[in-house]
Specification:
The protein has about 240 residues and is mainly α. The protein is built from 7 helices and 6 strands; from the N terminus they run H-E-H-H-E-E-E-H-H-E-H-H-E. Helix content is about 45%, strand content about 5%.
């Protein structure tokens, strides 16, 4: 990731053509088939490779029962942050976490229900007066793509203060635009997802800027070593962003 950012190249290449074709096909049938679907024959051509970020090591803060700081609200699975993964998650441990904490969360929620006499007030219908139905889907799709590009190019895996500060400046503008759009238009799945994406992006950026060290999956070229001052979780509340 660091080398790609320095050079501006789109990928690096993995060359396995020195191996026999039958060995490659038999040992890596899925990779071979996948590359062939993109018209790349890995038995005779190099494979374009890029790193990928496929999960978030964090989430809604809970205790070991899945309870949040809002009474009666529970979270489990990859949406939650139980603290069991520390600064990095080992491969496949998310499945174990989901299984274990889903049960703990369900047991705790069932116990909570037994101790409460729920009396829900009537919920009024959603009032969308004064809003308009947007037919400009491109506004949403463009912002989603912009956030993806922003996070990949300026945040990514190997980070620097220069890129993080630029990312924070950009995401604040995007969030302001999205919030204005959200307030004026009829609520849709697309606008809600975009609003959530922008919020999570800013949380990640601010967390990375605050942590002036490298630890676990967080690596910054400005602070390449761990520091005991940051031997703690990063917790950000909505009012602070």
């Amino acid at each position: 990731d660091a080398e790609l950012k320095k050079s501006g190249e789109r990928c690096v290449f993995l060359d396995v053509t020195h191996k026999e074709a039958d060995e490659i096909i038999n040992r890596f049938p899925q990779i071979y088939a996948r590359c062939k679907s993109y018209k790349i024959d890995i038995t005779s051509e190099p494979i374009p490779v890029v790193p990928a970020a496929h999960y978030s090591c964090g989430g809604v803060v809970t205790n070991l029962k899945g309870e949040t700081d809002i009474s009666g609200l529970y979270a489990c699975g990859e949406v939650s942050s139980t603290g069991v993964h520390g600064a990095n998650r080992l491969a496949s441990n998310s499945l174990l976490e989901a299984l274990v904490y889903a049960e703990q969360c369900a047991l705790s929620a069932a116990e909570f229900i037994q101790t409460k006499d729920f009396r829900f007030p009537p919920i009024p219908l959603w009032d969308d007066q004064g809003t308009f139905n947007s037919e400009e889907w491109v506004l949403i799709s463009h912002d989603v793509q912009e956030i993806k590009n922003l996070m990949w190019d300026y945040v990514g895996i190997v980070r620097s203060n220069l890129r993080l500060e630029r990312a924070l400046s950009r995401i604040r503008l995007i969030r302001q635009e999205v919030e204005n759009y959200y307030r004026r238009t009829t609520v849709t799945d697309g606008i809600i997802e975009l609003r959530n994406l922008a919020t999570v992006a800013q949380l990640i950026i601010q967390s990375a800027l605050w942590r002036k060290e490298s630890r676990g999956l967080h690596f910054t070229t400005d602070y390449p070593h761990p520091h005991d001052d940051y031997l703690q979780d990063t917790i950000i509340k909505q009012r602070t962003i």
